[in-house]
Amino acid sequence: MKRPRGPLFLARRSYRLRRMMDAARMLPAVGMFLFFLPILWRPADTPQPDTARGWIFLFMAWAVLIALALVLARFLVRAEEEEARLSSGDPLATDQMRD
Amino acid sequence: MTGKVLLIEDEPHIAEAIRYVLDRDGWQVVTHGEGADAMRVLRRERPDAVILDLMLPGRSGHDILAEIRADPELHGLPVLILSAMGQAQERARAHQAGASGFVAKPFGNDEIVRALREVAAR
Amino acid sequence: MVPFNILVAVCLVYVGFLFLIAFAAERRAARGRVGWLRSPLVYTLSLSIYCTAWTFYGAVGYAARSGLEFLTIYLGPTLVMVGWWLVLRKLVRIGRRQRVTSIADLISSRFGKSNLLGVLVTVICVVAATPYIALQLQSVTLSFGVFASDAPEGWALPNQSATALWVAAGLALFTILFGTRNLDANERHHGVVIAIAVEAVVKLVALVAVGIFVVWGIAGGWQGVVETINSSAIAEWQLQPGRWIGLTCVSAAAILTLPRMFQVMVVENADERHLATASWAFPLYLLLMSVFVVPIAAVGLTTLPAGSNPDLFVLTLPLAQGQGQLAMLAFLGGFSSATSMVIVASIALATMVSNHIVVPLWLSIRQRTAKGRATGDVRGMVLMARRLSIGGVLALGYSYYHLSGGSAALASIGLIAFLGAAQILPAMLGGIFWRGATGAGAAMGLIVGFIVWIYTLYLPSFGEDGLISHDLMQLGPWGIAWLRPHALFGIEGLDPVLHTLFWSLSLNAISFVCGSLFTFPSPIERMQGVAFVNVFDTDADTRGWSRGGAEAEDLLIMAQGILGADEAQAFFQAEAEAQGKAGLLPDTTPEFIDRLERRLAGAVGAATAHAMIAQFAEGAVVSAQDLMAVASEAQQIMEYSIQLEAKSEELARTARQLQEANDKLRDLSVQKDAFLSQISHELRTPMTSIRAFSEILMDPELPPGMQQKYAEIIHDETIRLTRLLDDLLDLSVLENRKVQLNIKVANLHDLIEKAVRAASSTQPQRSFTLHRDPPAEHIPVITDTDRLLQVFINLISNARKYCDAERPELTISARKRGGRIIVDFIDNGSGIPKEARRLIFEKFSRLTDNNQAGGAGLGLAICREIMANLGGSITYLPGQGGAAFRVSLPVRPPKEIIERAKTS
């Protein structure tokens, strides 16, 4: 039986969506890793006091995390709207959604 | 012959007109304006004849007629029915229920006098 | 230098400005133009109440004392926000689906609508928040003090305590005004949210402005700042891994469980997608709020004289540099932080106190005394309870401040409050992720955590020999060493906050889990568990009610008491329409009762709404059928039965519609026969009198005095006959929609006035009390005013004729709602019996056989046709305590009616 092309495309698309959701779930873990890194690094144990560097590092990490969250949030909102639109029209598409 | 007649009619103007006409004909007229209490008045007044309107507040004329006919003391009482429904079927229904006479509204004054005399004479 | 008077004036102007903004927002929302009031930006800014005065002033002090550790307070929330997909999204979805009103309501609702849990959570929150509110009052007072002590003119604050009292009273007033204006079913406060969004901007701008001044105005750019940091005491800071991780976790927990955060994040959320924006925008806000903290602290430590309070560097640095206006801006920023926190916290706490403590108490007292169902005006009572609670919460905060004398112990209160609120976390997370969590487990966890927290951190925070004696701290109660508050089970040397964090949360979680494993949940609990944990899977809602004996009319009366008449009537009407029924009374299906309960829960909380409905839905609350649905969790069976149910419901609805149509048809045919004989009767009756009396008049023996009287009777009966014929013709023209309309503009007030005057000739001997609200009646109407007047006169005359109360009263209320003008006529008689309501608008349907009342029973039929011709309607309003009619017509007449008026 010939498979229609449409669902294949949709499946790939929704596969990406699933992985983006996974990424969104993992983001706090990434944040924790970044924020807890200074513990290993022990800024005050180094001969030169470099609290300033720790300060800069934390803010950089923070900014990176915000940027990641921004990208993911944009993607997820748009993808969710699309999914809602597609799944209402095409039952095959929703079947493929379950990974 | 004349005597005492009980008029059961809820429209005050119609009752007043009938009372005037029968009065002139020598009847003693007692009026009553609704249906629920009509039987009690009837038993108290003991009239020689009854003029009964069919559409009454409280209790319908049909009910009252049926009770009169079922009562061993009253079942022979002459009852003249007044009705705003003039159709033949209404007339037949009244007779079947035991009405002694039937007058449709609007009526001529002579008509009601004649009908009452006729009914009372029977 | 800023003179104190100007400072006070600026404060007052600022507060006035906030009043205006909040007021404008409320007005806008009331007109239905919510728009940008509920944008993602406003949502994000409203979350900023996380940054209180503690963070505005205290963060710099914290940084000066413990280096970068202050950042943990911001990093924790950042982790929660960027992880929105995991927890927050689910919380918000549950909050919206279940119409949750507070965090106490969430916990109570999840665990079987248990009021015990609601009370527990409320108590924890109030205890934890009281010192925190005191801290805000203190910070405002202190910042006033900064200006006072530096003033060269030598003015001083008259009395610190008095200042705090004024601030507390002002905040209570603001909160009561905008937090309890209405009992919204969604518990949303547009005015308050906009005001705190503005305050969020003010505090960010203030802190950033001070930061920019410090970095580029004093330290000489970033390079200088880095050097200053590394040469200041902050460089000596040692990162303590335990505190670093622990505090991050505590603040992450706090943003989820602090009542005020729950209020803005979940309860006030208008759109789930706003969360996506806030997930990065709020961390960005936090970053901006904290980026200048370390520079300010470092510069303050190196430039200001030793011994100055680092908590106030934000104010004292600009002041020391002669930047009075910048200091003023910083002052406003701190003021904003304190006020917005207090406002939202007191709203959230007041909602909890009134919904979980005051209302249930009131209900149980009423039930015991009156033995009746609580139906009266619950609304007014709830609002009053809220207002009193707000006053109470602020009074508690003030008295704490007053008693503690603004001691330094307050400084650590922020973290203590965070830890207190965090006790709710296990129950919350367990509740939304674990279906096995039970109410008993949650209660045990909460109680254990709360006690450990109070004992090891809260009470000792009042200082040595404060509430806990020195001996007890050192030796333990009754000399039992392993029960010492700061060394439970003999673990010594831990930081007190970490010690409490560890013991309270672990014992809390263990009790919660064990309690849940060893207790069995009630059916409602299990159903709520599914509704919460599987909130994304189930579109169909779980059902809580089996068919009870509830009467729709009783429910309507109760709902009117809580939601207000308009709101409740609209809800009932929509429900009835969805069932395919006309009128205001839907069938009391389980689905309907369920939706009603959720609607009520939005106003008074889940537990109370459940209890109120239970008064009416008598018998078993949960049927055997529902129990089976819970017991058999095989998904397929459930899905299948849901489909079947949907189909059978569809069938039932169609059948109901058919039945109604059939009834109507049968009634119509019976009516048609009745109509003809009625016409015959109504025409013959006056004709009989006319004929009889005209014959009498021909009688030559008629006494002359009687002639006049009988002629008058004939005259009256002729008029009666003419009126009847007129009415019949009018009705027939109206029914065929051929009536000539004469559209004019009039003031509704004038029309009602005229109608009242015209109707006063009906039964003039009866004294009648009229209740009206003349100012509300001034509404312009564009319609055939003569026809509308005819309807009003008819309704008022009817009330005069048929109202059977001993002291008859008629209430006429008019208002404009959703493009329609609505006028209600409600009398205090015994009303119209249910069976008769369907027929009163039909021709000749006189309720009493009382001919003396005059008229042939065409009045209401004509009214109905007139209103239909005007594009409006007239309906009977059930549940108003008397006969009640609602006239409703469009503000502007529909197009076809205008066209008809033109052509005719």
Automatic annotation (TrEMBL), chain A:
Top-rank lineage group of the source organism: Bacteria
Record key words, sorted: Membrane, Transmembrane, Transmembrane helix
Annotated transmembrane regions: 54-77
Record has Membrane as a keyword: yes
Keyword check for Transmembrane: yes
Protein name (database record): Uncharacterized protein
Species classification: Bacteria, Pseudomonadati, Pseudomonadota, Alphaproteobacteria, Rhodobacterales
Automatic annotation (TrEMBL), chain B:
InterPro entries: Bact_response_regulator (IPR050595), CheY-like_superfamily (IPR011006), Sig_transdc_resp-reg_receiver (IPR001789)
Pfam annotation, one family: Response_reg
Gene3D superfamilies the record matches: 3.40.50.2300
Residue ranges of every copy of the Response regulatory domain listed in the record: 4-120
4-aspartylphosphate: residues carrying this PTM: D53
Naturally occurring in which organism (per UniProt): Albidovulum inexpectatum
Keywords (A to Z) from UniProt: Phosphoprotein
SUPFAM superfamilies to which the protein is assigned, alphabetical: CheY-like
Keyword Phosphoprotein: yes
CDD domains attached to this UniProt entry: REC_OmpR
Protein name: Response regulator receiver domain-containing protein
GO biological process: phosphorelay signal transduction system
From TrEMBL, chain C:
EC numbers on record: 2.7.13.3
Lipid bilayer topology: Multi-pass membrane protein
Catalysed reactions, as listed in the record: ATP + protein L-histidine = ADP + protein N-phospho-L-histidine
PROSITE patterns per the UniProt record, alphabetical: HIS_KIN (PS50109), NA_SOLUT_SYMP_3 (PS50283)
SUPFAM superfamilies: ATPase domain of HSP90 chaperone/DNA topoisomerase II/histidine kinase, Homodimeric domain of signal transducing histidine kinase
A Pfam family that the UniProt record links to this protein: HisKA
Transmembrane feature ranges: 6-25, 41-64, 70-88, 116-135, 163-180, 192-222, 242-262, 282-306, 326-359, 380-401, 407-425, 432-455
Coiled-coil region list: 637-678
Keywords for this protein: Coiled coil, Kinase, Membrane, Phosphoprotein, Transferase, Transmembrane, Transmembrane helix, Two-component regulatory system
SMART domains: HATPase_c, HisKA
Primary site of residence: membrane
MF annotations from Gene Ontology: phosphorelay sensor kinase activity; transmembrane transporter activity
Gene Ontology CC entries for this record: membrane
Family assignment from sequence similarity: Belongs to the sodium:solute symporter (SSF) (TC 2.A.21) family.
Protein name: histidine kinase
Organism from which the protein derives: Albidovulum inexpectatum
Organism placement in taxonomy: Bacteria, Pseudomonadati, Pseudomonadota, Alphaproteobacteria, Rhodobacterales
